[in-house]
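ugh ok so i messed up the first submission bc i forgot one of the chains. this is the corrected input, ALL of the components this time, i swear. 1344 residues overall. if the numbers dont match what u have on ur side tell me asap before i send this to the collaborators (the ones from the other lab, u know who)
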Amino acid sequence: MTLKLGVIGTGAIGQEHIRRCNNVLEGAKVVAVSDINAEGAKAALQRLNSDADVCEDGFAVIQSPNVDAVLVTSWDPTHEAFTLAAIEAGKPVFCEKPLAMSAEGCRRIVDAEIKHGKRLVQVGFMRPYDAGYRALKKVITDGDIGEPLMLHCAHRNPTVPENYNTEMAITNTLIHELDVLRWLTRDDYKTVQVVFPRISSKARPHLKDPQIVLFETQKGIRIDVEIFVNCTYGYDIQCEVVGEEGIARLPEPSSVQLRKDAKLSNTILVDWKDRFIEAYDVELQAFINDVKAGQLTGPSAWDGFAASVAADACIKAQKSGAIEPIEMPARPAFYN
Amino acid sequence: MTLKLGVIGTGAIGQEHIRRCNNVLEGAKVVAVSDINAEGAKAALQRLNSDADVCEDGFAVIQSPNVDAVLVTSWDPTHEAFTLAAIEAGKPVFCEKPLAMSAEGCRRIVDAEIKHGKRLVQVGFMRPYDAGYRALKKVITDGDIGEPLMLHCAHRNPTVPENYNTEMAITNTLIHELDVLRWLTRDDYKTVQVVFPRISSKARPHLKDPQIVLFETQKGIRIDVEIFVNCTYGYDIQCEVVGEEGIARLPEPSSVQLRKDAKLSNTILVDWKDRFIEAYDVELQAFINDVKAGQLTGPSAWDGFAASVAADACIKAQKSGAIEPIEMPARPAFYN
Amino acid sequence: MTLKLGVIGTGAIGQEHIRRCNNVLEGAKVVAVSDINAEGAKAALQRLNSDADVCEDGFAVIQSPNVDAVLVTSWDPTHEAFTLAAIEAGKPVFCEKPLAMSAEGCRRIVDAEIKHGKRLVQVGFMRPYDAGYRALKKVITDGDIGEPLMLHCAHRNPTVPENYNTEMAITNTLIHELDVLRWLTRDDYKTVQVVFPRISSKARPHLKDPQIVLFETQKGIRIDVEIFVNCTYGYDIQCEVVGEEGIARLPEPSSVQLRKDAKLSNTILVDWKDRFIEAYDVELQAFINDVKAGQLTGPSAWDGFAASVAADACIKAQKSGAIEPIEMPARPAFYN
Amino acid sequence: MTLKLGVIGTGAIGQEHIRRCNNVLEGAKVVAVSDINAEGAKAALQRLNSDADVCEDGFAVIQSPNVDAVLVTSWDPTHEAFTLAAIEAGKPVFCEKPLAMSAEGCRRIVDAEIKHGKRLVQVGFMRPYDAGYRALKKVITDGDIGEPLMLHCAHRNPTVPENYNTEMAITNTLIHELDVLRWLTRDDYKTVQVVFPRISSKARPHLKDPQIVLFETQKGIRIDVEIFVNCTYGYDIQCEVVGEEGIARLPEPSSVQLRKDAKLSNTILVDWKDRFIEAYDVELQAFINDVKAGQLTGPSAWDGFAASVAADACIKAQKSGAIEPIEMPARPAFYN
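and heres the new structure output, hopefully the right one now
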C-alpha cells in the first residue's frame, strides 16, 4: 500500500520533500500539492517529473479524498491553520518547524489533537533521526556513562545572511537544540540565562554573536549551548554529555584523514545542508512508516509546544540578562 | 516505471536483496524468484510479504516475460550459467561475487557480453559504493595528494568459521581489496608475492593467519595488504594511500567518543555486516538506476575477470613463496 | 655559579623540590632546610643524600648567609610570613601556592615587594610552564584563531579525599585555572557566577560536585570552567579557546593508540601528579635561571594576589548564587 | 660526584652535547675536548662558556687523567679508532652512530670490549630513550596486545640534501629503525627484501625514493618499513605493532588541535631535530647515570654491530632485488 501524500507549499523545502518522497523513500507518493503561486507549483511538479494534482489551496489538499496524509511546508505563519485543519480532517500531518508562530498557537494544536483523541501531528525536527545523536542517546540509555549531569553544546555556522538578527539565534538556530536536548535527556527545561561574550568582529553590527545559553533542567542537569553563527571555519555541531561515570560526545562527521602540508587533518563541513542530509530522509521515512503502522512516534505537537515555550523564555532572557523560568505545564498523559 | 526484478536463489543474501528492493530502494520490485528449494522460496516470500512468483528454476526466472532484470544470488557454482543465460536473453544481470568459479569462466562471460554488444553484467562488489572509499577516491582524483606511490591496507576479522582455510584468505577476504584497489588506483596488478608472518595462536592449526600480500601495479604502485582473520579485536578495514604530496586514509566508521575508565575511546565494529551495510543499498540502487538509464556503470564482468585472474595469482604465490606475475590481457575498448 | 637554595618545610612537596634541585635541575643546590619537625627534616635529607644544614626555623634559613634564594613549601598559613621575611632580607623566594591565606595577605606581599623596588617573589603556579598550555598560548599570540571570545574549560579528578569540601573546589582545584587563564588571555576577571548541576551520586554528601564557574573578563571574554572532582574516569584537564577565526584546544597528553576489544583508544591519566610532572621541573628551572639572570619572569606576587581576589569572589558566588563582581585594583606599573 | 667528560669532535653535534652536559643534564661536566680544527674548538668553547681544555687530539682526550668518560662525536671514519682507544684505556665511551664504518669494524669493538671484560661502550641510538617508543614497548612487554606478529613502520622526511643517495636511505635513515625495532621486539633479523615503488617526482633523479624494506625476524615477525625522504608534508615516524590480541601504535607528537578553515587539524613536525629532542637529553643522562652506577644498560657495541650487519644486508638486497639472509652470530653471553 502506497501512502498518498499532499504537500502544502512547493518552495525549496516542499520541492525537496516531493523529490524525497517520490524518488528516495519507500511506500509513499505525492498525489496533490498547493502553493500560493499555482504556476510555480506546476513548474516545480514538471521539473520533478510528478503527476500530482495542483489544488486551489492547502485546505483543498487536506480535504482531497485522494490524500492520506499531509506535509506542511508553506510560509511559517500558515503552519498553524493547516495543521489544525488536518487534525480536523483526521489526517496525519508532518509540519515543518515552527509548528506555530507562538507557544499559544502550538498549544491550540496540542489541544485539538488531544480532543481528536489520537496523535496526528509530527513536527519537522530532524536531529532525533541523525545517526550520531541516536548513537549518543543509546550510550546514555544503556547507562554507559551513568546519569547525565551536564551537557556542553555548540552550534556554529561559518556565516549568516544579512537579515539574521540576535533573536534568530534562538528561533532559527538554537531551536534545534531546544528540541533535541529534551529528547536526548528525556527532561524538561526549568530556567534559562543568556550571556553575551565579546562580539566577534566578523558579525554584522546589529547582531550579538556569539551567545551562550545556559539551562537548568527539571532534573538539575546544567546545559550550556554556545551559538556562534560567524565562526568562519565551518558548520560545526557539538554535544558532549557529562555523566556520573563518563563522558560521551556526538560523533564528528566521518572524513578522510589527510597528512599534508605539516598538518594531520580531517575535513569540517561548511554547509549545514550536508550535515543532517541523511536525517531528513530517515525522518520522513519514519513518518511514512508510522502513519502506515497507525501510530506516530516522532517529535510531537507537545514537543513543538515545548520548544516554543523554551524559545520564548530564551528571548526574554536575552533581553533581561536574568535567569528566567521556563514554565512548562505538566505533560498530558496523552503524550506518554 | 518500476523495474521488475527476478531473484535467482532465495538464501540469506537473496532474501536480503528481496527485502532491500521491495522496502528500501526506489524504482524496483521483485516479481519472480527461484530456488533449488521451492518450498523454502515460498516460505521466504511469505515472511517478506512478497507476492513474487516462484519459478521452476533460474532459467525460468530469466525467461519470464515479466522480468526486466535479474539478480543472481544462488550457489556460487551456478553463477556463470545464470549470468550467461541472462546475457543470452539480453537482460541486465546483477551477479553476486564470484562471477564464476575460475578466471576462464569469467572470461566466457566477458566474451558473451562483448558479443552481445552492450554491457549487461554488474558484479556484486560493494566497496566502490561505500561512502568512505568514495571520499578517499575523490581525494586522489582531485590531486590532493599527488600521484599515488604506495598503498598500505589491512583486512581484519575478529574470527572466522572452522572451515575457513588459507586459500579462502584470498578468495573470500582479499577478493574485496582485489576489486576496490583497482578501482581506487585505476591501475592493474603486475606481480604478487605472499609472505607469512608468525602464525597467531588464535588461528586454527590448518590456517596460516595472518598473511601479507604484496602487489606491484602496472604503474609501479606498491600495495601491501595485511589479511588477519583472527585479530580478535574487531572487523577493521584500513586503506592508506601514500601520494607524492600527502597521505590519505580511509575514514574510520563514525562513533561516539567516550571518556571512561581511564580511556578516551571510539568503538570498533565487530560484525562485518555492519561495516558496509549502507554500501549494499547504494550498490543495488545504482544497478536499478543504471538499468533504467540504459547504461551500466558499476563493477563490470571485466572487473570480475580481473579480480579472478589476480586471485589465481595470489593463490599461486601463497604456494610458491615467489613473486608471481599477474597476467591480465589488455582491457577491451568495450569496457572503457 | 651554583645557586644556593634554602628550603622551608620538608614535607612531601619540600622533599620533592630538594630532589628536583639536586638531581634533575641545573645550576642550583639545596644548602639549608628547616621544618617544624627537625628530626623529620634530618631523616629526609639522609634519604635524599643531601648534606644541607638543618636550621632552627624558616627565618634562620632566610637569614643564613649561605642561602641565595628560598623555596617556601611549609604549612600554608606560614607562607605569608616567610615570603615577607625573604623580601625583607632581599632574597628571591619561590612560594608554593597559596601565597597567603587571604587576598589581604597577598596584597601585603605585593606592597612589600613594590617597596623593596625589585621583583623577588615567584608563586608556584606551574601550568604556565606546561608545554601544552605554552603551545596553546602560542597559537593565540600568533593570531592563528583571531581574538579569543570564549573559553570552555574542565578540571576533572577521578575522586577526592573525604575532607575535600565545596569551597575547596575553588581554593584547591579551580585556583590553577584562575591563574593560567589570566596568563593565557592576558586579561583580568570582571564577574563570576557559580551554578550547581545535579550532584553526582559518586560525591560524598557534604560536597556539591560538579560545579560550573562562569567568568566575564575585562575584555568581555566569557569563560566556563567545569569542576568535577568525582568524575571517576580520570584526571582530565580541558581548555578550548574559541576565537574569531578558529578554535584551539589544549593537547591531550600523548599516549599509545590501541585497537583492542572493539575499542580504538588512548589512555587517560588518572593521577594528577603525572599530568604536569614536567612542568614542575621547567617551573623551578625557570626560577633558578631567572634568579641568576637577575630578573624574575614567572607568576608574580601580583598574580598570586589576583588569583586570591578571584577565588574570594568565586566563594562568594558559590554562596550567593548571584553574579559577583571581581574587583581587582589596577595593575601597578611595577608588574608590567 | 661530577662525572668529568671528554668530547672528541666539536662540530655541530659535539657542541650540542657540550651544551647539554653542562647546562641541561645533571652530574657531569665537560673538562676536555679536541677537534681537527683546534681554533674552531676554542671558539666553540668560548661561545658555550666552557672552561674545558683543548687537547691535541682525541687520543689525548682519552688519555687525560682528568677525563672519566668520553663522548665521540668526530668524523664518522674516526669513530672506531677512538672507541677502541677508550676501551684500551678502560674508560666508558659514548660513541655517536655509526660505531664503525663496517660490520667488521663494529665486531672489532665488540671483541675488544669482551676482552676487556666489562661493558664500556654505548652507541648513540636515541630512539629507545624516546617516551613514545618506551610507552609502546611497555604495552608489548605488559602483554596488552599479545605476541607481536607484524610491524608496519614508516620513516618520512619532507626532503633531503642533494648528496643523499639510494644507499643512504639505509645507512642514514633506516639505521634508526634497524636499532629500535630490535630493541622493541627483543628479536633479531633473519632476512631482508627491498622493493622500489614508483619513484616520486619530488626526488632527485639519482635517488630511488620511496623504498619499502621487508624483514623477517628470527621469531617470524614480519616487518615492513616505508622509507620516503621526499614526502614533502613533514617529518613523520610511524610504528604500528600488530599483536595476537590487539594493535598498538607509536603516539603522535602532542599538539594543539585546531578547528580552522574547514579543517580539524593537528600539526605535524617538519624538522627531525624537534622529533626526538627530549630523547637526546634522556639518552645522555642515562649514559652519565649508568657510568656513575658502574653498569651500562643502553645500546651496546653488540647493538651497533647488529645494526651494521643488518644495514649491509639491506644494501645487498637493494641491489639484488632478492630476499637476502641477515647472518648474525649468536649473541655472546657477555651482552645478556
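quick check: Residues 301-320 of chain A form the longest helix (20 residues). that seems consistent at least. Chain A touches chain B through 29 residues (CB under 8 Å).
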